[in-house]
Each structure stands twice: as structure tokens, then as C-alpha cells.
């Protein structure tokens, strides 16, 4: 009894002061905005101290949390994205169709907003946004950052940003200080004790996803955190030394492969020179649209994929790399696609998106330029 009590008190001490940002279910937003029927038509594929925020899980394809901008706060659901640097939000100055179905930030209603009208423009793998920069107070759960640079959208061409439920992006990339991500400002303003944040991403649209700022939540993982160095001033880009299928080396990464660790990418992106061979090794078939699919009834027997990172063997079972939505032929789509580059810095180039990250508790340590992966509890 005493041992259990001590363990309970230890866990309480480890998590006290963490800021949690919930990543919540998409139906919560749809009901809140009266969009449930309409949005069901869409699916998007493409330390020990800290603060927690829950996140919304949109069909295992995107994770976002509620953020307040301005004084008094105007609230928006932002996509928390380790693959980009800028925090931007849909604004009243945006006339694109993509802005019509989202709440819009109005700087005239914030007493703390300032701007010199400096323009910004970002092109993502899918979609783009243009606008101008300003500064304002940002509230995330219990955290307040008082002078955060914010992009206000004026144009969002196409429908990429119309379909998702989120109202903008929060860039969390590991970049030079001139970019001043919100984590940089949290560190600079002293609102978190450790320069660390961590993600737990639920699967199958379940609740409970969250990002923690200022530390980690030991209740979400077991065993040790396996640390991998990342390059300074990169989008959490690492080099790993091996890739295996069914515990057999492919040889593709024997001289090293590189990858960015990207919560803003839904899938696992494989170097394009290997993507067909990988699916053949896994026994996938192509459907009439050329997409790789698996028999949904056989997913649990598929061979595991193994990433060898800094000596650790990180395994992805078939249930992790196959998407669980079943079509009329009892097929489930592969969660693996081709990345947009064969090589980066001379290494075969991967993107470790949500398909990979859901399998682990993922820790982003800016202070020591490393990412960590731990088995889920």
C-alpha cells in the first residue's frame, strides 16, 4: 500500500505544472459550428514540468487544438505543425472561399494587436497562404505568450484549407531564432521551465490526444525515451541508420536515411524510388485509382516495418501503416505514400508523419537538439 501511495505521489509531482493542450474529436467542432452534416463529406489525406493542451483528431489525418488570439481572446482551432514555422490564422481580410466556413480573426477587436503590414507567403506540400504579419497575445490552455508574431491570411487559393476543420496553423519547427516560433517565445518569456514539448496522438478518432509544453507526461509512455539527434535549424530533421521489413534489412538506409519529424503530415512518406518496392514486399495491391490497398481482414498479419534510429529499433505493425477505413471491396488504403524528394543532403528522404508518430510518444527537445520516441503506455 505504501509503495502504491509513493508511486502515485511521484506521478503527481512529475506532471504538476505541465500545460496540456487537448487535441479533441472533430465532431466536437462540427457540432459547435453546426457543420456536422456538411463536414462529413470531406476526408483529408495529404523535464517533468510543463503545460498540457488537448488536440482534436480529425479522422487520424490531422490534429489541432483550441487557441486564443488577442485581448480579449478570439478562439480558433489551429493545426499544431512541427513541419512549419509560422503561426497564422484566417482573418477578416481573407476573401477566398477557403475562409467562408471558418471563424475569422479581427485585429480591430484586440487591444494588444500591432502590425507593420509586413507581407508573408507560405507554400505547403498541399495548399498555400498569403497575408501580412502582426503581433498579439496568444493563449494556449493556461499558457500566455504576450508578443507572438502572427500571420493574418488574406488569400488561401483552392480548397485545401476549406476542407479541414482547423482555422490556421501553429508552426513548431526547429528553426533559426529569427523565425520566433511560439515555442521560442515561450522559452524567451520564461513561461515554460524546459525547452521541450511532446505529443500523444490517439488513433481511430479517439479522444485523449494532447501536446504538452514544458516537459513530458510519463502517464503516456513506458520504458525509456530513445533519443535521436536532429540538425540545428531544421524541421526536426534527423538521420537514421536502418530500415527493415519483417525484421530483415532492406539495405536502403545502410549508408543513412534522413527524415523530418512532422505532425503536419498525415501519412508516412517514403522516398519515391522505394515506394513501389516497399508495397510489393508488403503484399499490397493497386486499386482502380492506382492507390495501394490491403485486405482489411489481413492487416493484423502484415509484416512490421522497423526504423533503426541511434541504435533503437522502432517498430510499426500493419495496424499502424494501414488506414482503417474499409471500402466496398473490404480493402483498406495504405498509409504510406511517396515523398516529394528522392534525396535530401545526399540521403534517401522520408517524412515521419502521423502514421509513424501515432505509434510512439514523441518528444521534441529544442534545448538539446534532439527528438525522442518512447513506447506508448
UniProtKB/TrEMBL annotation:
S-S pairs: 94-99
Location of the active site: 81, 262
Pfam families, sorted: Asp (PF00026)
Keywords per UniProt: Disulfide bond, Signal
GO MF annotation terms: aspartic-type endopeptidase activity
BP GO annotations: proteolysis
Family: Belongs to the peptidase A1 family.
PANTHER family on file: BETA-SITE APP-CLEAVING ENZYME, ISOFORM A-RELATED (PTHR47966), PEPSINOGEN C (PTHR47966:SF66)
Protein name: Gastricsin
Amino acid at each position: 500500500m505504501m509503495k502504491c501511495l509513493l508511486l502515485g505521489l511521484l506521478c503527481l509531482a512529475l506532471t504538476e505544472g505541465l500545460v496540456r493542450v487537448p487535441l479533441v474529436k472533430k465532431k466536437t467542432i462540427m457540432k459547435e459550428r453546426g457543420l456536422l452534416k456538411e463536414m462529413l463529406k470531406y476526408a483529408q489525406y495529404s523535464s517533468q514540468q510543463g503545460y498540457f493542451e488537448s488536440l482534436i483528431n480529425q479522422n487520424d489525418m490531422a490534429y489541432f487544438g483550441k487557441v486564443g488570439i488577442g485581448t480579449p481572446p478570439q478562439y480558433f482551432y489551429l493545426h499544431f505543425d512541427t513541419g512549419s514555422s509560422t503561426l497564422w490564422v484566417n482573418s477578416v481580410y481573407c476573401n477566398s472561399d477557403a475562409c467562408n466556413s471558418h471563424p475569422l480573426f479581427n485585429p480591430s477587436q484586440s487591444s494588444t494587436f500591432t502590425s507593420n503590414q509586413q507581407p508573408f507567403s507560405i507554400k505547403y506540400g498541399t495548399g498555400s497562404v498569403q497575408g501580412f504579419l502582426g503581433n498579439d497575445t496568444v493563449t494556449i490552455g493556461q499558457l500566455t505568450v504576450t508578443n507572438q508574431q502572427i500571420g493574418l491570411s488574406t488569400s488561401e487559393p483552392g480548397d485545401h484549407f476549406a476542407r479541414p476543420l482547423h482555422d490556421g496553423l501553429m508552426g513548431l519547427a526547429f528553426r533559426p531564432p529569427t523565425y520566433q516560433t511560439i515555442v521560442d517565445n515561450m522559452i524567451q518569456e520564461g513561461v515554460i521551465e524546459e525547452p521541450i514539448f511532446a505529443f500523444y496522438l490517439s488513433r481511430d478518432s479517439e479522444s485523449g490526444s494532447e501536446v504538452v509544453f514544458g516537459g513530458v507526461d510519463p502517464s503516456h509512455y513506458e520504458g525509456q525515451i530513445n533519443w535521436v539527434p536532429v540538425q540545428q535549424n531544421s524541421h526536426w530533421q534527423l538521420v537514421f541508420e536502418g530500415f527493415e521489413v519483417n525484421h530483415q534489412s532492406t539495405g536502403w538506409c545502410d549508408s543513412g536515411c534522413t527524415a523530418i519529424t512532422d505532425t503536419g503530415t498525415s501519412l508516412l512518406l517514403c522516398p519515391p524510388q522505394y515506394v513501389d518496392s516497399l508495397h510489393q514486399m508488403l503484399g499490397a495491391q493497386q486499386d482502380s485509382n492506382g492507390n495501394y490497398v490491403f485486405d482489411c481482414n489481413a492487416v493484423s498479419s502484415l509484416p512490421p516495418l522497423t526504423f533503426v534510429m541511434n541504435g533503437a529499433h522502432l517498430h510499426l505493425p500493419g495496424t499502424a501503416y494501414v488506414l482503417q477505413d474499409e471500402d466496398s471491396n473490404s480493402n483498406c488504403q495504405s498509409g504510406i505514400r511517396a515523398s516529394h524528394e528522392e534525396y535530401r543532403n545526399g540521403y534517401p528522404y522520408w517524412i515521419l508523419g502521423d502514421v509513424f508518430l501515432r505509434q510512439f510518444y514523441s518528444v521534441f527537445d529544442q534545448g538539446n537538439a534532439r527528438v525522442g520516441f518512447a513506447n506508448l503506455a
